[in-house]
Amino acid sequence: MVDNKHNIEVDWLKGRRPFQFFGPCSAESVDQLRITAKGISEHFQDVIFRAGIWKPRTRPNTFEGVGKDGLKWLIDIKEEFGFQVATEVASAAHVDACLNAGIDVLWIGARTTVNPFSVQAIADALKGVDIPVFVKNPINPDVSLWSGAVERIEKAGVSKIGAIHRGFHLSDNRPYRNAPAWELAVQFRTEHIDIPLICDVSHISGVPELIPHVAQRAFDLDMDGLMVETHYKPKEALSDAKQQLTPLQLHELINNLVFKSADSKNAEFKNQLDFLREKIDRIDDQVVELMATRMNISEEIGSYKKENQVTVLQIQRWQEILQRSLKSGEALNLSPKFITSLYNAIHDESIRKQTIILERDGK
Ligand code: PEP
Ligand code: MN
Fold first, then answer.
1. Number of domains in the chain
2. Is 262 contained in some domain?
3. What CATH number does the domain containing 168 carry?
4. pLDDT in tens, the chain (363 residues)
5. Ligand positioned closest to the Cα atom of 58
6. Are 59 and 198 within one domain?
7. Taking the CB of residue 269, how many other CB atoms lie within 10 A of it?
8. Which of 88, 89, 139, 244 is the best mutation target for the ligand 1 pocket, counting ligand atoms within 8 Å of the beta carbon and taking the most?
9. Ligand 1 lined by 237 (C-beta under 6 Å)
10. Which of 4, 92, 208, 350 is deepest in the core (most CB within 10 A)?
11. Owning domain of residue 30
12. Whose CA is nearest to atom 3 of ligand 1?
């Protein structure tokens, strides 16, 4: 079944997966859009060609988009390449302009999702119109705010709703531009099992080098598609120049992704499993980081021992450490056998590091 107005499968969840939102961060000129779209069309069909027309920028006096003129350019792309075209809306006026122009798909940006007033104004403008709308997660790590925005759009009667995971602004986002916090995306998915969730790998990564890893992770989590900012000359882009791929790089990215089949057909089970595995991965990252920090301190102690000509192994101190940990382990229901072997391994590594320091410079 096809919705003639927008030429989109009504059963769009099954019909359109995986979603391919490819195109530049911003529409800059007729030529930039055409050359980019042509490059993409050489490798892909069934693309939702994205380009921002109104750009929400952190600082004024940066490129804020070409405005309404760009809508016509997008319609030309749709006609020439047979792509569907999508842009970001941040107000009721944007929605009206897009509907009048014949834009196929709308998305709500991260800076808009944070504000329920703005989302409601967009929802009101969408009443009675069944255009697909994708809602990006808010900048801050708040899944309820994201869900609330989706619910406002749903209540307006829009039936084709999707969500876009574009990472979150945490106190430390390294090495990403926006931390993926995958467990939040999984949590959102668990709450909204019926709507497609796609991953905006560009705004998470911030640089091309991280994109393959992020995209693979998104597919491993069974997401329904990708948004990838693509520009025929990324370095010359007027916005987000550091993160865009060329159409050829985009082709390589998608070619190298491994599509794994889901272990279980039961999506709810899989989501719950992913959710728990995500938690475990987070904890393991912390365990390794804490071990590294512990070993750095051990090395400092090693240098100190060297200066003061103290032996590396001090049995009494080691006994104290082990006893302390056995005691906390007991309180937390961890077996003495486990604690002892864990601490033996830690201690061995610590001694190894201190010995290297002591033997350095032949002293
Ligand atoms: C964009 O898609 O170009 C954009 C501005 O993204 P976000 O709303 O995720 O920051
Ligand atoms: Mn961008």
1. 2
2. no
3. 3.20.20.70
4. 333 333 334 344 444 568 999 999 999 999 999 999 999 999 999 999 999 999 988 888 889 999 999 999 999 999 999 999 999 999 999 999 999 999 999 999 999 999 999 999 999 999 999 899 999 999 999 999 999 999 999 999 999 999 999 999 998 898 999 999 998 999 999 899 889 999 999 999 999 999 999 999 998 888 999 999 999 999 999 999 999 999 999 999 999 998 765 554 556 566 778 778 878 887 887 888 889 889 999 999 988 888 888 777 778 999 999 999 999 999 999 999 999 999 999 999 999 998 998 888 654
5. 1
6. yes
7. 12
8. 88
9. no
10. 350
11. 2-256
12. 25
Torsion sign across C-alpha atoms 65, 114, 143, 195? negative
Residues 79, 212: Cα–Cα separation, whole Å: 31
Q: At what angle do helices 143-155 and 182-191 cross, to 10 degrees?
A: 40
Residues 23 and 169 grouped into a single domain:
yes
- Residue 178 within any structural domain of the chain: yes
**Sequence-separated (6 or more) residues with CB below 8 Å from residue 135:** 107, 108, 113, 146, 149, 150, 153, 161, 162, 163, 164
Residue 261 within a domain: no
CA of 113, nearest ligand number: 1
Q: What does pTM read for this prediction?
A: 0.74
Shared domain check, 204 and 97? yes
* Distance from Cα 203 to the centre of ligand 1, integer Å: 7
Q: Whose CA is nearest to atom 6 of ligand 1?
A: 109
